[in-house]
Specification:
The complex is a heterodimer of chains A (about 350) and B (about 240).
Chain A: H1 2-7, H2 15-53, H3 61-84, H4 92-109, H5 113-130, H6 139-157, H7 163-166, E1 172-173, H8 180-203, H9 205-215, H10 217-222, H11 227-253, E2 255-256, H12 258-261, H13 264-277, H14 284-302, H15 307-321, H16 325-345
Antiparallel strand pairs in A: 1-2
Helix pairs in contact in A: 2-8, 3-8, 3-11, 3-13, 3-14, 4-5, 4-6, 4-11, 5-11, 8-9, 8-11, 9-11, 13-14, 13-16, 14-15
Chain B: E1 5-16, E2 19-30, E3 34-38, H1 45-53, E4 58-65, E5 68-69, H2 75-81, E6 83-86, H3 97-104, H4 110-123, H5 125-128, H6 140-153, E7 158-162, H7 170-181, E8 189-194, E9 205-210, E10 213-219, H8 220-225, H9 227-234
Parallel strand pairs in B: 3-8, 3-9, 6-7, 7-8
Antiparallel strand pairs in B: 1-2, 1-4, 4-5, 9-10
Helix pairs in contact in B: 3-6, 4-6, 6-7
The chains are: A mainly alpha (about 350), B alpha/beta (about 240).
Main location (chain A): membrane
Membrane topology (chain A): Multi-pass membrane protein
Protein name (chain A): Branched-chain amino acid transport system permease protein
Amino acid sequence: MRSEEKLGDIPAKSGDRQMTDKGQSLRGLGSLLKRRNLKDLLAVVVPVVIFSLAPHFYSNEILLISIMIYVALAEGVNIIYGFTGYLPFGYVGFYGVGAYATSLAILDFNLPPEVSIIVGGAISALVALVLMPLLRLKGSYFAIATLAAAEALYAIIGNPSLKSITQGPYGINIGSVYSSGGSYVVAVVLLGLSILTVIAVKRSKLGLALRAIKNDPVSASLSGVNVVVERTKAWLISAAIAGLAGGVFAWTITIFYPSAVFDISISVFAIVFALFGGVGTTMGPVIGAVVLYGLYSYVGVTQPQYFQLIFGAIIVVFVLFVPKGIVGLLGTAINRLGSLGQRQRG
Amino acid sequence: MDSRFVLRLSNVVSGYSDLPVLWGIDLDVTENETLVVLGANGAGKSTMIKTIIGELPLKEGSIELLGEDVGKYKIHQRIGMGLAYMSELGVFPTLSIHENLMLGAYGLKRSDVRHRLEEVYSLFSELKGRKGDLASSLSGGQRKLLGIGKALMSNPKVLVMDEPSSGLSPLYVKEVIASLSTLTGTGRAMVIAEQNVSFLQLSNRVCVIEGGRVSFEGSTTEFENQEVLHKAFFGIEG
């Protein structure tokens, strides 16, 4: 019977043949793993090395730190949006909380800035835990609800009646711990950590579960995935990254107002950078943040009257015509070149 | 036949929003048994399967899985207990064949996964050759086979299937039946909701649902001897 022949492949094979097949498939799997390991290693090492050496060639460290912060934010958006499909328009809320929690840990508890930044990340994750019910919402409702939550956090922290705790709308000053070199090193660590986190999520059971959830939550739970728990993990990791990024910003700038760290454009930039580069990929958000933030800074300086128009036009073109981002575009181009080469050889 | 119940439905009332579709279903499935649930479109087969897996809530009655009342359990909890559901829905088109199978083994320890993979790949050789391909590149029939393979990855005690023949050419229906036949008598129970009577060749028992109620339950031989039912499903004189 045809079907039996097709399904029952094992009895028909000789022992030698089975061993050869197994050896070949193991070798294939081994080289695949090696390629994957190398690719992932390069994805972390190359940006970290470039940004570590960059101050020797380019003196604007604030711009370099800003790019690294945006890479981290875009990778954070990548984890919650790229892997689960939840678009967090209010992502800036975690960034602002991280910046304030870091500053207050320095001012009120005299913690070293490096430790305070970790506290900032942890407090942001804690806030994300409180905001967990938002994950019950879907699509634009979730996006709007996170935006409202970020505005609420802004209103709480910037409230004049909380002046004794947060300094309210009058801003916060941690100038006493200013360290240009220190904050740069921590920004590089944040850059590497955020990329490494995306790789770890992608390669883990969590990453597989999140991709299944993005496909269809019901089908994912039919595979035994606890949708609520796995989605919450992504939400907390994503919030912690934003909190760490906010902490690095606070230590870099040292004096800031609530409006600077709860600015909705920070969310928009992080989302656009991730989309531009390619969500769901490791390098997409890195490419997106470096290219677009670099361009944004250049256009903003040389053509300040046009920069919003030019920047907006680029975003519209990419969202409409390159929905998979730069990394997706490159992947398609490489595949086409590969099949063209095969056809020519054939 | 071993009489240990692995799945027991008692007076199950279930449906969509306020409207019940199932009106008091009683059904027992023992281990090592293959039960084919027959019924016309709208009879309540899919509703019953969805209620068993937890996609639809119980309005009344109880469902016991491996002796435990799972009426209030969520889908993933039932799956974690040893229930597996096979449908085209369960296959993720944007994941590779290998990733789909790995997802099927989601609740397993890493040490058990390799063994399960080997077993499933040995059963479905054509999937093994294309393990890196996206599931979306598979034909409808191949997706069904992947769905079965994925469901088997967790080494389930009870495997439930909703119309595994839907959308398949007769050739692929044969192939699906052939692959399922290798699973009969291996200790696990199978519940197959179908309209296609070809699946009766797999069954020990048959349950017929009409209007949300069980109108017949008995062995496959008893079913074939019921002239009225035989005529209704085979469309020929018994």
